[in-house]
Amino acid sequence: MSLARKILSNTAWQVIGKVITAGLGIISVKLITNYLSPEIYGEYTTIYDYTALFAIVADFGLFTIAVREMAGGGGDTKVVSKIVSNVLSIRTFLAGASLALGAGAAFLIPAYDNSFIPLGVVLVSCATILTLIAGTISSVLQFYLKMHWASIALTLGKVVTVAYIITVIVYLFPSNPEAGFRHLFFAWIAGSLLSVIITFIASSRLVPIRYEFDFVFWKTVLIKALPYGLALVLGTIYFRMGTIVMSLFKLKEQIGFFGVPMRFLEILQIIPHFFMNSVLPTLTMAVAASNPARTSKIVRYALNGILALGVPTLVGGYVLAWPITAAVSSPEFLTRRLADGTVMFGSDLALKILLIAVVFTYLHVVLSYTLVAMHRQSELLWINGIVVIINITLNVILAPRYGFIGAAVTAVISECIVLIALFSRVRLRIGNIWDLGFIGKTAFSALLMGVMLHFLLTPLHDKFQSLSLLILIPLGGVVFGGSMLATKALDKEMIAMLRRR
Predict the structure, then answer these.
(1) Can you tell me whether residue 160 is helix, strand or coil?
(2) What are phi and psi for residue 157, nearest 5 degrees?
(3) 338-379 pLDDT, tens per residue?
(4) Do 52 and 243 touch, CB atoms closer than 8 A?
(5) Cα(429)–Cα(489) distance, rounded to whole angstroms?
(6) How far apart (Å, rounded) are the C-alpha atoms in residues 397 and 47?
(7) Disulfide check for 365: which of 6, 59, 272, 343 has CB 3.0–4.6 Å away?
């Protein structure tokens, strides 16, 4: 099997696993939003977003750095074992320290007094540590392109989580959300623990994994990871800041409206990372070989692939925003007209706005990984640092006044600025990376799909309600894919590369 097919197969397994877990995630969001009011769901969202600010310190980009170092070691099992074992130790230490700090700080924030947020942060921190451990171990599976095991672990863990949530909502505390609230976090802990066990067993068959404490290696890796890790920290700050600012102003209902599409989009935003984690070893080798032509081609193909995912997601998601939101939440979260005639905007509007940010994110993930492969991750730091300042300023101005709409618009502006800055840095080193012909054909195909969905939405939704999505989404995919083939968006060289064995 060719390297290209191995990369696509590895990515496909991750996407399949993510599709399954996304489906389970949507089920859990549907259950929880029907179980909790928008205000209580706002607390639920605040807990996750607040914890994420500290969890990213433990992440620190170490997964990406570990895969890159494994590629640099030539695949020697002793080198791979040393890297993953030490990175596991680093991540566990950082996770314990940063999340303990975050949990302690949550008890001191006045806006969180008399709420479940501080204790919820403690519980989510426990689950997050387990998730980070599983992610670190899976870097071995990523390097050897065996991510089907990681997908299995993730899927089974999610099954346990959803089963626990159903038990809590249906059987244990069906009419007492306050009592069942903490169990929603116990569910994540249980699922994460199972994922760690399965991932460890699968990875240990490839290389020995244990905690190692080579502090010289720690220093080397942390120095390499520092610019990229700080960039990730800053990136997470501006991604989560809308929720945090609204929570400080106690806009719990607005956070609830904002939280529904954010949970949905978090699923979508993982896909480009899966794709680029598969591309990164090949991209790193091309950069190391000082082959700018091959590097440019790899980046261009990666951008084409990401555009083929992101553009139809934006167009289709925009047209189907209302039924999608209705399917994953309750009527309380939807845009509706009140008795006095005023319109109360809901999560479907937030989804429409945030989908624009998702496309920008998809593109800048490719460019970010390109800079990492070039050992230029320090440039990510100053870019994200500037954007954090802009993001916080805009959120403080817009979020208290316009609620989730202000936070969503701020997210779009922030992602756009990041994309422009990253493009300027990458272009300086490898020249033109945009395939304008592919972009035009992709946009045309997506618009054709959007027009079709627009005209079919009302009659199908009137007849089948939320089940209409089971018809509309596959049909949209067929129209988009058919148009991409008809317009020959994939050139002969790309098709030949994918077919080569």
Answers:
(1) helix
(2) -60, -40
(3) 778 788 899 999 999 999 999 999 998 999 888 888 888 778
(4) no
(5) 26
(6) 23
(7) 272
CA distances 424 to 233, 418, 429, Å, are 22, 10, 9
Q: How far lies 355's CA from each of 208, 255, 437, in Å?
A: 42, 17, 23
Alpha-carbon separation of residue 346 from 110, 132, 316 (angstroms) = 28, 33, 19
CA–CA distances in Å: residue 430 to residues 422, 426, 493: 13, 6, 20
How is residue 38 written in tokens? 């928008």
- φ and ψ of 344, to 5 deg: -105, 110
Dump pLDDT digits (tens) for 423-443: 998 888 887 788 889 999 999
343 φ/ψ angles, rounded to the nearest 5 degrees:
-95, 130
**Structure token digits, residue 438:** 């592919």
What percent of the chain shows pLDDT beyond 70? 94
Residues forming a β-bridge with 336 = 344
Which amino acid, residue 154?
L
d(CA 126, CA 228): 25
Considering the entire predicted model, what is its pTM?
A: 0.79
* Residue 344: strand, helix, or coil: strand
Neighbour-count burial of 400, counting CB atoms closer than 10 A to its CB (0-12 exposed, 13-18 middle, 19+ buried): middle
Crossing angle of the two packed helices 252-288 and 62-72, in degrees rounded to 10: 10
**Cα–Cα nearest to 360, from 240, 272, 256, 234:** 272
Please report which helix (H) or strand (E) contains residue 121, including its range: helix 117-143
Rounding to the nearest 10 degrees, give the CA dihedral for residues 175, 178, 179, 184.
Answer: 100
Q: Are 404 and 325 in contact (CB under 8 A)?
A: no
